[in-house]
Amino acid sequence: MVYVANLVRLVFSIYIILLFVRILFAWLRPNMFNPIVRFVYKLTDPYLKIFAGIKFLRIGYLDFTPILAFYLLYLLQELLYKVLLTGYFSPDILFSLIIILAFRFVYFILFIFMIAVGIRFIIEMVRFHSGGPFVSIIYSISEPAVRPFRRILKLGSTSGFDPNVLVSLVVIIFTRYFILPRILGLIMRAIA
After folding, report:
1. What is the pLDDT of residues 104-124, one digit of tens each?
2. Does residue 122 contact residue 166 with C-beta atoms inside 8 Å?
């Protein structure tokens, strides 16, 4: 049964790699007449189209639906691997995998926001408002994390610096490194 479990894990891993290549293709915009590109699109598009309608995972220039697709595929891979390896399935195994992967997904999204808001904070501190594509992408990615604090705190910007950016960065870091690990620990202790 170990061989079957490893074979299943290998097949899922290959498909996950194909999904990653497909996402890179979307950014790099290769020649669509290339047979390798068409092959990758043909294999991955049906799965990715399942997630295309999820609007709340599209924030500015970022589309988190492929990340959700990765995580769900990874969840299925790990669940099948454990079931094939042990010959045992329980709702507890499924529930713990879902919790862990959900937290990983949230961690990843917070990491993206932390990087974008951190870069935006640096841009505002050095007053580098070039209006170029890099700066506009950073502002587009970080704005969903900054906007709620602007609405709640109503802190106005002073001399080109928006204090809401700093507040947002502090809250994201605190949530990512202090609050979420404690919540995950409590949930995992309750499951065990």
Report:
1. 888 888 998 999 999 989 988
2. no
